[in-house]
Amino acid sequence: MSQYWSGRFAREGMIWGREPSPSAEWAKKKFQEAGLSSVLVPGAGYGRNSKVFSAAFTTYGIELSTEALELAAAWDPDTIFIAGSALEPQLNTQIDAVYCYDVLHLFLEEERKQLIAASLAQLRTGGLLYFTSFSDEDRNNGCGRRLEQGTYEYKPGKYAHFFTEADLRSHFSGTEILQTGSFPEKLESEQGGIHEYILRYIVARKIN
Ligand SMILES: C[S@@+](CC[C@H](N)C(=O)[O-])C[C@H]1O[C@@H](n2cnc3c(N)ncnc32)[C@H](O)[C@@H]1O
């Protein structure tokens, strides 16, 4: 996994451009309304979305790819980036909120559970989680070799999990689920390529 992402960041730089996902602005507003002051961004990439949060909150990003971290240090100098895996807790402090964009669907079931457990371990009780991931309504769902239920190698060497509403909710059982939904996301690369995905999101509160 890390080789795949490092290769892409080395070749393509800011793969999805400089504009953040509208979901980051939306989550920022939710976190501000809740009076929160610190945010963790697991799988932060080159800081495209963490930059939205670092303008308003103490922000930490966890990222595995050295190439992404080099870009992130320049693009989002206000976020504290930690080199390491988001599948394990990396902070020795508890934070108020987690924003995790399009990372959960990259893993098989056991690792998806680890990502959520590690995120919850770093979140204080009462803190908020906002996650996005591929929807089962996305056109790539069901394409290619099936690896697990809902998980497909939709491009050679690249797989993803496609979430139904019930599946996403069941991943976050043990939290108080506040809101779920789906939205189309348009990503424009710096080279001018456009990719469109259907994403699901979930907002949840850590209850214990
Ligand atoms: C689809 S990209 C999303 C990047 C970022 N969230 C954004 O919105 O721009 C997935 C990111 O997760 C990172 N990643 C993959 N596995 C990881 C892991 N175990 N721990 C931390 N980061 C990881 C990749 O290097 C890549 O930057």
According to DSSP, the number of beta strands is 10
Uncertain residue ranges: none
Helix content range of the residues, please?
Answer: 25-40%
Order of helices and strands: HHEHEHEEHEEEEHEE
Rg for CA atoms: 16 Å
**CATH fold-level topology:** Rossmann fold
* Average pLDDT over all residues: 96
Spatial strand arrangement across the major sheet = 3-2-1-4-5-10-9
The overall number of domains is: 1
Shape designation: globular
**Number of helical elements:** 6
CATH C-level label: Alpha Beta
CATH homologous superfamily annotation: Vaccinia Virus protein VP39
For the largest beta-sheet, the strand count, sense and barrel status come to:
7 strands, mixed
CATH architecture: 3-Layer(aba) Sandwich
Strand content: 35-45%
**What bound compounds does this protein have?**
S-adenosylmethionine
Oligomer: single chain
Structural class: alpha/beta
